[in-house]
UniProtKB/TrEMBL annotation:
Provenance organism: Planococcus lenghuensis
Peptidase M20 dimerisation domain location: 169-254
Cofactors: Mn(2+)
InterPro entries cross-referenced by the UniProt entry: Amidohydrolase, Bact_exopeptidase_dim_dom, Peptidase_M20, Peptidase_M20_dimer
Lineage: Bacteria, Bacillati, Bacillota, Bacilli, Bacillales
Protein name: Amidohydrolase
Co-factor binding details: The Mn(2+) ion enhances activity.
Binding site for Mn(2+): C84, H86, E118, H142, H337
Zinc recorded as keyword: no
SUPFAM superfamilies (UniProt xref): Bacterial exopeptidase dimerisation domain, Zn-dependent exopeptidases
Length: 365
């Protein structure tokens, strides 16, 4: 019965995707489900999302689900699309809630339905509105692509990497194509930035990457040397410490390139996502929950992935919280964020079982 409800919830969210900070109908549907179960909840109010609670006690165990969809081109049409799998995350957390309805709980359990994970700041918005207040243990869940986990396997923790984006502008001076000495060529600076980024080296034992992801210079005329240009950089690392070093090195390089080519380079970092800070205690509890709920043969090793998730802001902002995000193998392909991503829905009930068992074990530890 619960497996069927989980599938119905997924169907609804999948058919009604909403982009970041626009998840109003998703929030309304979640509130309707809480009313149906007779569970108290509180809307964030000025932004989409809600927190619901059951059980009693001073300590709070929390499960978090993200709600937003991506805006992307699907079969030639731009639209909201749940290729991120957040529709599945909501269904699994709701499934865990349903499984816990008749379980005596010695601690309070909070269900956080958070907006705007894809923007990278939804978790921060939820934290500012009290979502993490009093939380001692926090768990999340996410389906994993085929190359990380096969169908049925469950990882007790996901070690996401850190990521941040830089948006920059180069300001030099236009010149006639026949008189390059009279200007300051922004294209020269662009190529210097590209070459510099490719020459940044840290220890090969620390995964990291930086690359130009957006370039624009010049107009329709090919006989004008452009003095202005814009660019963007995607920087990632498996640890927060290495990402900070990478940011510092890139900033240092931009200053040097600006001086070398006689241009002004301005840049701002945005959409920072921290690397996972996985609690060994929380991961041990999820590990035991996997074995107890779906079998020891379904337990996988902890997943290390270069992707990011704003889930980890909860522990960055609240270091006392012990957290882990469960990874669920789902035969997911071609990959997360692919416009035609699909997965085996049997994984949804698996995820709900593991989350419910994790809550019970954490409450009775």
């Amino acid at each position: 019965m619960i497996a069927k409800r989980i599938d119905e919830w997924f169907e609804h969210f999948h058919a009604h995707p909403e982009i970041s900070f626009k998840e109003t109908e998703t929030t309304r549907k979640l509130a309707e489900i809480m009313d149906e179960f007779g569970i108290s909840y509180k809307l964030f109010g000025d932004i989409p999302g809600l927190v619901a609670e059951m059980g009693t006690g001073d300590e709070v165990i929390a499960l978090r689900a993200d709600m937003d969809a991506l805006w992307q081109e699907v079969d030639g049409v731009y639209q909201a699309n749940h290729s991120c799998g957040h529709d599945a995350n909501m269904a699994m957390v709701l499934g865990a809630l349903a499984l816990l309805m008749d379980v005596p709980l010695t601690r309070k359990v909070r269900f956080i339905f958070q907006p705007a994970e894809e923007k990278g700041n939804g978790a921060l918005a939820a934290i500012e509105r009290g979502a993490a207040d009093g939380v001692t243990h926090l768990y999340g869940v996410h389906l994993r692509p085929q190359e990380e986990l096969p169908l049925g396997k469950v990882a007790p923790a996901i070690h996401h990497g850190a990521g941040v984006f830089l948006r920059g502008k180069i300001t030099g001076e236009d010149a006639h194509g026949a008189r390059p000495h009279q200007g300051a060529n922004a294209v020269d600076a662009l190529f210097a930035i590209h070459q510099f980024i490719k020459s940044i080296y840290f220890s090969p034992f620390e995964p990291y990457s930086a690359k130009l992801t957006n370039l624009h210079a010049g107009g329709d005329s090919v006989n004008i040397i452009p003095g202005t240009a814009s660019f963007a950089v995607d920087a990632r690392a498996q640890s927060n410490e290495v990402l900070e070093k990478l940011r510092d090195r890139i900033e240092e390089g931009l200053r040097g390139i600006g001086a070398l080519y006689g241009v002004d380079i301005t840049a701002e970092w945005d959409d920072y996502i921290p690397a996972a800070e996985v609690s060994s205690e929380a991961a041990a509890l999820t590990r035991a929950a996997v074995e107890a709920s779906v079998g020891k043969n379904m337990l996988a090793e902890e997943v290390v992935t270069p992707g990011g998730d704003d889930f980890h802001f909860y522990t960055i902002r609240n270091p006392g919280i012990k957290a882990a995000m469960v990874g669920v193998g789902a035969d997911l392909g071609p990959g997360l964020h692919h416009p035609n991503m699909t997965f085996n829905r049997e994984a949804l009930y698996t995820g709900a079982l593991v989350l419910a068992e994790t809550v019970k074990r954490t409450a009775n530890r």
